[in-house]
Amino acid sequence: MAHSAAVTKAVVPVAGLGTRFLPATKVTPKVMLPVVDKPAIQYVVEEAVQAGLRDVVLVTGDGQRSVTEHFGRAHHLEARLAARGNERALAEVRAPAELAAVSCVRQDAPRGLGHAVLCAAGHVGAEPFAVLLGDDLIDPGERLLARMIEARRRYGGSIVALMEVPPDQVSAYGCASFKPTDDPDVVAVTDLVEKPDPSEAPSNWIVIGRYVCDPAIFPVLRATPAGRGGEIQLTDALRALATADRGPGRDGGGVHGVLFRGRRYDTGNKQDFLRTTVEFACARPDLAPDFVPWLREFLSALPDGQDGPDAIGRQLP
Ligand code: UTP
């Protein structure tokens, strides 16, 4: 049965504290940190637009006005650039404002991803909607979100994106158990476990930062008690929907998983942020011709077998 209600809205929660990037995130929201020269959040909104979602609601917290402002007009800056005749810079400044209809709702305190999504309930209404985590970048060539929207049309309910990781990494994520469907890229999720012990993990497929949620998730979120760290977890509500025959969320239409085998960049942790920056720079036609040879030379100058901080052989600020 095809599920006709179209997915048109994207919810992008950015209200976390970004503690792993302090002091950079003291006054600058984590999603505003640049990957090369564009804030991470702009890649994410571009991905939503590419999947046909032009109604984007950011869930922001204290001191995060700059995230919303990034998607508005900057009249003073535009006037200065226009006066200088700098058309290229002017286009860069205007592009985010022309991407989509971006609005924002507030999360009064960072009470968890599930709570952040709940803050967008009034804006979303009774329609299915996408959730994109502002610090998770997905290779646009994979069309992951478009595939998830298609899975929602076919199977209804809610859709998560699942990615296979080495078993020792499952304990950092939500992890799924599932059974196959007739589509080799889509599975029926039977359970979700948040941050399992590797020995108890039901699989090594983890939930990554893209979701398509049935609006039935809102009453479930309202009824979801705070879990780990006093936060309301989105995974707990999805679990209730996935195990609906055994608990609340009976009318939610279940949960399916789209298997993702492409590149994902978690800019929310330092190691991946650095890898992402280097990889993106190496893929940029304007930077790669200088940057790649420098990188090769830099690496070849490092002494063999020294992977610690001493490898660079000098102190940096
Ligand atoms: P993270 O846990 O990765 O982000 O949440 P964080 O809390 O900002 O980072 P650390 O752990 O302190 O370094 C995943 C996403 O959910 C959002 C975050 O902004 C991030 O984009 N989030 C999380 C909220 O919007 N509200 C919350 O209460 C929690």
Assign the CATH superfamily of the largest domain: Spore Coat Polysaccharide Biosynthesis Protein SpsA, Chain A
- Major sheet description: 9 strands, mixed
Corresponding CATH architecture of the largest domain: Alpha-Beta Complex
Subunit organisation of the chains? single chain
Uncertain regions spanning at least 5 consecutive residues: none
What is the class of the largest domain in the CATH system? Alpha Beta
Number of strands: 13
Number of discrete domains: 2
Description:
The chain is an alpha/beta fold. It has 2 domains: 9-284, Spore Coat Polysaccharide Biosynthesis Protein SpsA, Chain A (Alpha-Beta Complex), CATH 3.90.550.10; 285-317, no CATH class. The chain has 11 helices and 13 strands. It has helices spanning 40-50, 65-70, 75-83, 87-99, 113-119, 121-124, 144-155, 217-223, 234-242, 270-282, 288-300, and strands at 9-13, 34-35, 38-39, 55-60, 101-106, 129-132, 136-138, 158-164, 174-180, 186-194, 205-213, 255-260, 264-266. A 9-stranded mixed sheet has the order 5-4-1-6-11-8-12-10-9, with helices on both faces. Helix 3 (75-83) runs antiparallel to helix 4. The longest helix is centred in the N-terminal third of the chain and has 13 residues, at 87-99. It binds uridine 5'-triphosphate. Uridine 5'-triphosphate is lined by residues 13-20, 30, 59, 107, 110-113, 115-116, 133-135, 268.
Task: Write a concise synopsis of the structure shown.
The chain is α/β, with parallel strands linked by helices.
